[in-house]
Structures are given as structure tokens and as C-alpha cells.
Amino acid sequence: MTKSILVRGPALSQTGYGEQSRFALRSLLTRPDLFDVYLHPTNWGRSSWLMPNDPDREWIDKLIRKTISATQSGIQFDASLQITIPNEWEKLAPINIGYTAGIETTRIAPEWIEKGALMDKIITISNFSREVIVNTVFKAQNTETQEVVDVSVQTPVEVAHYPVRSCTAANINLSLEHDFNFLVIAQWGIRKNLENTVRWWIEEFKEDEVGLVVKTNIMKNCHVDKLLTQNKLDEILKEYPDRKCKIYLLHGYMTHEEMSGLYQNPKIKCMVSLAHGEGFGLPIFEAAYNGVLVVAPNWSGHLDFLIAPRKVKRKGKSVKKTLPCFLPVDYDLSPIQPEAVWDGVLDKNAMWSYAKEDSYKKKIRDAVVNYRRHVKMANTLQKHIKENFSESEMHKNFADLVSTEFSFTSDQKEIDDMFAALMSGD
Length: 426
Hints:
Elements: E1 3-9, H1 16-29, E2 35-41, H2 55-72, E3 79-83, E4 95-100, H3 111-116, E5 121-124, H4 127-135, E6 138-141, E7 148-151, E8 157-159, E9 181-185, H5 194-205, E10 211-215, H6 223-237, E11 246-250, H7 256-263, E12 268-272, H8 282-289, E13 293-297, H9 303-306, E14 307-314, E15 317-324, E16 327-329, E17 331-335, E18 351-355, H10 357-369, H11 371-388, H12 391-403, H13 412-424
Parallel strand pairs: 1-2, 1-3, 3-4, 4-5, 5-8, 9-10, 9-12, 10-11, 12-13, 13-16
Antiparallel strand pairs: 6-7, 14-15, 17-18
Helix pairs in contact: 1-12, 5-10
């Protein structure tokens, strides 16, 4: 007997949570024998939605129409899957599962403990996020006994990674002047640390014939947003009028095929990120499984897939060791900036990483000078990710995590009917 499950999340948005919602839906839809899937789409901030001609729109819109019809007929859902930040979770059905990107800092907000208690299970996207959710402890005082006790999330927390996406790379013309180019993909906001990523890169390569492709936006993918983004980038570039290195702005929506074409462009050699923290780091993941060398801080969610077994020499012998398969940037852990505080989400007492400027510059220089050696490491990582993060396995893992909250044993009437049908030969 299938279970009706209402998925509430920003399935139409062009955001990380949008990708997370679509992954969850695809996973549940692989098991029509277990799940009868419905969708309540939500907004994610003021982000853009998928274009009407996007290939995902047809099946998502079909789910939405199905849900509207079922709701109007008075359906009572067996379970809910709520894809958002935990402070928005609520009891919507007899069984409720919270699916969150988690956190990019060293601790969760206190509100997440109360909201987590409303859920029967919590699923997050990396071991880093899980550890922060599980290990955050607050002191609380019992109002009756005055006893001070430790309070933490008690709901079971599981991890579901993203899968490698299989698609044909589109040919996109980037008109890159130099043969060696770096790539950064990040929304222009405080957590992504994009200004330092670009500025420090220019300072290191201002006398070199290399390029940096900056795929970014501020909020939306519209023309006004592009103008605002270009102005922010120009404010940095005007500080270096005589630079030899090139900066290219990529703005706007790109299909998965176009993104694959970007990663696989023969002139794109290295992906850089100085984000203060990642729940997972989907663009870094995509670059890595496309064979692009990665430079990133040695901290947070992306370590789930950037560390892999590789061959090294030990006492003259070749052995396999689990090691970083990227160029790790040193960092300091310090309190988040006051302007980053987000009530109920980013706690003022939390910390995240601050990449060290000298380490970043050394790593990106090393990426150019020793690229032939480092690309072998990137190829090893690519193979590891493709073998361990396949679509079939990741979809199965997610569906299994959800299905364990249910009993799929047929009721007695269904068993009797099946037995009668067998006996009659129907």
C-alpha cells in the first residue's frame, strides 16, 4: 500500500534549495510502489523561478495540478517532507520529515532544537551539517526546579548526498583570450566571500596572462540584476587598471547542459571558492565530477566529496591513502560578521571559516605552475565521485531514508483480496 506524501519546498526556484527539492522529488518518484507524491511549491526569497521551457517544468507543474485537485477533494496526507530551513518546519501530517541544507557555521540556532522536535526525522546534505546539528548543545534552566540542563536536537538526523548528473554538454562560446582560466560560481553575498575571491586573485595574477570566469548574480537572473552585478564587479576592477589578467562575467540562467559545457570547456582549468562555509557546495561538486581542479578552504560540507583514496609513494611503494584531492586553503575559524547574523538561522555566537589570503594566493599560483601534476589528482577525484555518488544510488538512499518512517505492510483486507484473486485465477 503506497503512502501519500506532501512535499513542501521551492521546487521551481533557481536556487540550491530548488535543486534540493527537485532531487527529493525525483528520488520519491523512482518508487511509485511506495509513494504517492504531491507538491506544494514555495518561494525561496526573491529568487527567479525555472523558465517555462525548462524540461523540469512539465513534470513539476503536473505534480502541482495533481496536488491542487487532491487538496480540493479533501485528501489527508500520510506524511510531509518539508524542504527548507528548520525554523520553518511545522506539523502538517501524522509523519513529518525535515529536509534541510543544514548550516555553514559551527553551531545551529536555538530555534532549530524546538523545530527539530516537531519532526520524526531530519535529513541533511552532508556529514558536516549533520555533525553541527547533532553536536550543538545549549544550556537551559527548568523553570520549576531551576535545574540547568543540556538541550540538543534529539530527532534522528541522516545524510543524503547529491548525485552526479548525467547530461550532454552544450557547446557555449566563452571567447576566452587565455588558455588557462579559473572559474568561480557563487551568489554575490556575504557567505560566499566573492569580493576577496576576485580581488586576491587579481592581485596574484595582475602580471599574468590568465583569466577568471565569474558566474554570479545578486538575487535574480534578470537584466537589472545583471547591471547591478556588473557595477559591483567594476568597483573591484577599477582598482587594477593595468592588469594583464582577464575577468569575465557570466550572469543569468544556464541549463544543466550549458553548465556542463562550462565545466568541460578545455580552457577552464580550476574552480576556486573562498566561501566561509558550505552545507554541501553543489557548484564545487559539479566542477569536481567534471574533472576540474578545485581550490577551496579545508573546512565544511565540500569535504564530503573532495577527500578520496589516491595512490601515494610510501617507502618506495605505491599505496592508497584517503587524502584531499583538491588544493586546500588554510583558514581561521572566527565569529560570523554582524551583518551575516540571521535570527533563527545564523546565530550571532556561531563561527565560520575565513580563508587566509597568503594561502589562497599560493594555491592558485600552484594550480598554474603544477597543473599537469594536479590534474591527475582531479581525475582521480572525478572517478571516485562518479563511482560513489551515482544517480541510482543517491536516489535509492534518499527514498530509503524516507520509507523507513513508514510501515508498508498490507492491511488484512488487502491481503484477503489478493488471496481471493489468486485463488480465483484473476
